[in-house]
Known about the structure:
Keywords: CBS domain, Magnesium, Metal-binding, Nucleotide-binding, Nucleotidyltransferase, RNA-binding, Transferase, tRNA processing, tRNA-binding
GO molecular function, one term: metal ion binding
Mean pLDDT: 85
Strand content: 15-25%
Pfam families: CBS, DHH, DHHA1, PolyA_pol, PolyA_pol_RNAbd
Structural class: alpha/beta
InterPro entries: CBS_dom, CBS_dom_sf, DDH_dom, DHH_sf, DHHA1_dom, NT_sf, PolA_pol_head_dom, PolyA_RNA-bd
Family: Belongs to the tRNA nucleotidyltransferase/poly(A) polymerase family.
Radius of gyration: 36 Å
CATH class of the largest domain: Alpha Beta
CATH topology of the largest domain: inorganic pyrophosphatase (n-terminal core)
Strand order of the largest sheet: 19-28-27-20-21-24-23-22
Amino acid sequence: MNAKDKIRAKTVITAHANADFDALAAMVAASKLYPGAVLIFPGSQEKSLRNFFIQSTTYLFNFKAFKDIDPDAVELLVVVDTRQRSRIPQVRPLLDRPGLRIHLYDHHPDTDDDLAAELSVVRDWGSTTAIIVDEMRRRSVVLTGEEATLLGLGIYEDTGSFGFNTTTPHDFEAAGWLKGQGMDIEVITDLLSSELSAEQVTHLGELLQNATTHDIHGVDVVITELSTDRFVPDFALLVHKLIDMENLKVVFALGRMGDRIHVVARSKHPDVSVGQICTSFGGGGHAAAASATVKDKTLAEVRDDLFALLYSQINPQIVVESLMSRPPVVIEDDKAIADAVELMTRYGLKDVPVVDAAMRCVGIVSHHTVDKALSHGLGRLGLSEYMSRKFETVPAGADLYRVMEIILGRRQRMLPVLEGETLIGVITRTDLMNMLIDEPARIPDSLLPERRRERNIGPMVGNRLPKKMLALLKTAGELGRDMGWEIYAVGGFVRDILLGRPNSDLDLVVEGDAIAYARRMADLLGGRIKAHVKFKTAVVILADGQRVDVATARLEYYEYPAAMPTVELSSIKMDLYRRDFTINALALRINPGRFGQLVDFFGAEQDMKNKVIRVLHSLSFVEDPTRILRAIRFERRFDFQIGGQTLRLIKNALSLDLFSKLSGTRILHELQLIMVEENPLACLNRMQELGILEAIHPLLKLSGERMQVLMELVKVNNWYKLLYQKPEAEPWKLHLLGLTMGIKRDQIGQITSRLRLTAREERDFILLRDQIGEALMKLMSWREDRSRLSRLCAILRPIPLEGVLFLMARSKKEHIRRNISQYLNRLRDITSDVTGDDLKTLGIRPGPAYTTILARVLDAKIDGRATSREDQLRLVERLWRTMQRRGGAQCEGT
């Protein structure tokens, strides 16, 4: 749809993805409170709902797809039957728009993901539709029979036809009012109790056969499973049938459908909130009915997690106060790193809370971080610079469920316990594990922080990699199996598979001897290797030019800030931990039998989902300040944001003047990588914003004029690339010309020296600037209507390509820009049709005259005065006669 054809709606209404009848009905009900609003259908997995919607609702109500509306026109977003940002992906582009007003109508419990809104109508009723109907009654809204029936359908479904414990008198009152408006109960009954198909009967039989009852602290919980490679429509309907047939109180149905696990849960027991449990799986719902879809775990892992969550929730007598250690060992926020090391060593602590003068917890610091900081000579720095400010806390009365969710689910090793805002105790992971050790439900391995978070993305790898690269991966994995070592593809290669971006830079990590492995690979595939014994790495160069970097799984530590790494043997986890950012700390198993298993210790997938660049530890930039430039490069390449703590650490590293300790060679290398990015100017702008350019050298500043020229340079270079001509310009030279524009000649050496250009690079760069300056003066006197094109070519021909492109970008005169483009596109490749041999045939003795004559002939061809070979030969004869008359023997080269 063209932009001009899109609907300009000021108000839109939507509900959660995978909508049920209550969500659909609540949207229609809300449209009565917001006349003229457009309804955005969020999609549904329920087959009966889809068919019902397609067959009738589309014709009755103003439902549209989000792509049909103009998002810039939307002023008010109304969300019903949810408040969670993550459950309304269909309108995600609206959520971050400044000035957007949001109204919410919901009956689900609060979550951390809830949207902020100017109006939030939340009531603990059996259905959201009943909440909105109550408001309609107050406003005396009149409905048609079809509308009343649809709204009634939402209330009947979400209250289990008034059979769920979550049903309230308000739901009955709303249904009674709808009956008075013409609600047809027979239609509702038919829709909610439709006959099952033969396939559905088979699936229901499987659920019945697999159902097992578990006594969890006195509550009978039924857990059943279904496994199929295809999606099962109306899975929730089958669960309802199961509950009705067996008269179940609490049921969790786990359905493996393809590569996802669908969870449908129902509860009639007051001590079991299925909504809370499904929220932990990334879904949502309320106490009596909830659902979730899990994408990155197996059926067995979801089952294990479910048991752990059930045992923690149905155990209210165990509260935080009975688990915590009090009084806590703390350190004040005005202390230094050395003080923290001394305190934590004395008490043998891995983590300690940081408090202010009022005993409020303002951070958490780890022994690992402060110990490394001390080894870098940073012991006198303030502790607050390196503590973690992003952490969870709990009140003393919180139950075990919340503790497990934070310590095991979110991997926070120490949990501060508060009374009001005051820190009164802490719970560690060890405290939690010691308490759970006697529980009948052991904590499953899948919840332990040490366990590798793995899911199989083999199908994704197969679909997104070229066949040749896929075959190489599998061959590399088979070689690892034969040598008895685990092999992983790691880093950006894996990251870009997940992001769906092409990347042929293959890095492999071997839990073994990388150099021995590389030699075997080269022998097997007919390549050659370059080994780096000191770093225990090698590069395999295959016959087709493909390079494979192979490294030994290792831990890198840095002897002093900004030093090159010293290498020790270690495991894949420690190898990944040494990397720069979480999004690059990914590994992919490629050994047969485990091919495609993704290893993600540090939450990279979640950071990619949240579009965040995050370092792995707080000393990352102290150890290697070039990571600051990489952070900016990745931020702009992927349109991510540098995380808050990471940004703070960047600013702290700059305040320590760590760039002065970096070699110019390393800085230049990172700048060269930035200059070949798709949007280098965005990177340079970010560097200017953070003060990085000046940290590299005080003369490097992005003035308005320089920025304007750099913008033109990008446009000009992109235009030149489309010509597909050789040679290609070197982007770093182009941008360095722009960055140094206006700097005096006697100062330019300071910058080239800081960047450690080689003697030849420095000489060529300074010469290039001089040539550009001379050409600028000559171009100022060049006139399109009076000057010949051959003169333009003579000005530009001696200058390297980067200088010509710079002149084109620098020039403000359109006719000069146009003719420079003509020079690059056509004129510079023109050659004369006569050669020295032709001159010899005409009896002209070799000598300086050859150069003069051939140059004059070429000029004549460029200017259109001698376009054919015959014309050029005649011109040669005339020139030679003239030269003989004027110079005699000198013209003959004698």
